[in-house]
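Quarterly update from the structural biology core.
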Amino acid sequence: MTGTPAPERDQARGHELGQEADQPHDLVGIGIGPFNLSLAALADGVHGGLCTAFYEQRPAFTWHPGLLIEGATLQVPFLADLVTLADPASPWSFLNYLRARERLFPFYFAEKFHILRAEYEAYCRWVSDNLPGLHFGHQIDAVRWSPERALFEVDFTQLDKDGEAEALGRAYTRHIVLGVGTEPYVPEPLRPLADAPTVPVIHSADYLDHRERLLGAEHITVIGSGQSGAEVFLDLLRERPAGAERIHWLTRTDAFAPMEYSKLGLEHFTPDYTRYFHALPEQTRDGLVPRQWQLHKGIDADTIAAIHDELYRRTLRGGWPDAVLTPGVSVRTAGRVATTKVELHLEHGQQGTRSRLTTDAVVLATGYRERPVDRMLAGLDPYLRRDSSGRHRIDEEFRLLLDPAVTGSVYVQNAEKHTHGVGAPDLGLAAWRSSRILNSLTGKEPYPMPRRTAFTSFGLEREQARPAHVPAGLLPLVERT
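Predicted structure, tokenized:
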């Protein structure tokens, strides 16, 4: 498929094709972020057609609007769009978006491999505006399995432009995919402050909404040393007067460390590594993920360089900038001082020392956690299979393990780090995971899977049983499946 999607394509096709109980959907998607948008785009290209509907509570597509800081770029190449790594000829590719906007030649001459974050969001909005079967303003209330119909029942509330309930509805479907994404994580000591409207303690996810207020604060503290923390710190630093920056940047990690961007290191974000990780024992997987923090929680090297350059520039007239960067620090407790200040009680892990810091504003770049789905899936709870830690068990094809009595499948996107590894939230694996789900769902192979994707062999293959007369060195190793 190489044509440009037309805006006039029927946006309501998904409802028309499957709203009646006797004509159920093949697939209902819950949530419309980049991952389910990728799945919807690739499903649109399946030969013979799939009857799909994707529901999202928000009124329109957005992607981290609070972090679309001027000049911030994606940490993956533009080829990690919604479809290209599974179907380069798809009409929903980033390059086709540029062509539709008559920007293909400017992009060609710009020679940008990593695009602006704001441009990626604009591309996704273009897809969401033109792709059929997407239904915004729909809140999913419950999911159940109907043994009589051998279908899933998905109850939803249609919302008006103000987010108020407008109508109730129900969809029937053979399969479901959960793509509800993540939510900002606020550490326990800071939750009461973040919930108080008079205290300027905000998560980096809402940074741009509060930027002017933060710039007016006398002293600012940024907590967290991932990419978001670095971008927020750099943006604030650039806007503060030299010699009067008054910024603290604190993190629990032992260093303001760069993201692992070596070419072989990046092979941890390949299908090969995902398959290897999934085959490991549960206990091994659980111990491995925390040790791999630098694969996904470090800082882009260009951002680190830009921060150092900005700090260095401020020493040219003598003196040092009033900016304190301290790793290895955790926040034990926090409280208000009067009504406009925050007192942070800090502890340095290596020194074993404690201190207090009074600040006028706090930005929490403390990451995200998987959004809970237990309440939504309460109707399926008797059928769900869990691991020793109470988490959902997920097979290699991204399906929740269910009781055999349930003949449909529930797929997940970006909720499987514990079973599939650090690549779960990575945009570079979006198209591959979507195509894997579609292959599983259709029982065919509309999107052929690559046989090999990494130069690294992540584990040793087991040897076959060897006849007594055959030397070990002459027996070939078992090939991967």
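Residues 117-130 form the longest helix (14 residues).
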